[in-house]
Amino acid sequence: MKKLILPVIPAFLFASLFASESIQIIGRIINSETGEPIEMVNVFLANTLMGCATDRDGRFVIKDVPNGIYDLVAHHVGFEGANVRVDLLNRPNENWTLRLQPRILEGRQVRIEAEPPKEWIKMLNLFTREFLGQSGNSRKCAILNPEYLNFQYDEPSGLLTASMDRALKIRNDALGYSIELLLQKFEFSKSAVVYSIIPHFIDLSPSDPSENQRWSKARQRTYLGSFRHFMSCLAANRLEEGGFRVSEMKQGLYKDNVAPEIGVEPLPEFQDADHRFRRIHFDDCLRVGSPYFPDERAIACMKVQEAIVDIKGNVYTEYAFYKSGYWSNERVADLLPNEYSAEGE
User: Fold this and answer.
1) Where are the domains of the chain?
2) Residues 53-78: pLDDT tens digits?
3) Which fold has domain 22-100?
4) 0.85 surpassed by pTM
């Protein structure tokens, strides 16, 4: 059974997306070597719908940001990306400056009008299948700029790795999002797929009201029964209400009648009035059943001492879990932004 290491999305901080108070994040992007402003830099808050581009003076303003702590990311072709922690709870009026290091280009780029090599196409197809996934959403999801992907394949180990020196652009017509993401890591072998990304979501414009309704239903259908839905219920101590049944699983054996010991504690140092963050720990693995996947089981194994989760189910500890079974099928085509909340949640 294939395993997927989670989280696939690194979060460098605890993003607070619940407070009613909104703030502007203001700043400037400059060339670290020359001090000159950089125009048209993509600036965004990781894993969210919030972002903008810099003007001719390198300035940016991200409006209507809920009070909290975020990872502010900037990237532009020809420069190394940069990110900085933005703490709106303690420093709401700070003006942010990010300095981008020019990327060294290896000679002049030449465009060759020719068919891609067969081996590259084969690796692209494999990458697309394992990266976007094979759910119903993936059939309406496409990579828009695959020509910039670089692949390496180690035949003895069967390991495929992928890298990209710019944002990977994806259009998800199933869920109604355009995604620009920085691919930090991708490794695929016969036993596991591991990837690390920093995504920025953009709402697509519906062609008519019915398309908007279709996206809304598809987003809720994708969320319900997902690992994020499970983590949200776990963080809020409402697994049974959420439709999840959890059994203890140790050393590959599970016991249906044994309730596992799961530690769910508030995180005082990051709490606000709504108590949104939790520190979660359990030994070994959990075997999970749900009406949302009645014919399958999902397994989550803890790979760190503890993980930080918010009450929306967003995981903020890198590579905290292995997923197998039903949840191993969740990939980039099934991603939802941190702001998303299902109806009735």
Assistant:
1) 22-100, 118-164+167-203, 225-334
2) 999 999 999 999 887 778 899 999 88
3) Immunoglobulin-like (2.60.40)
4) no
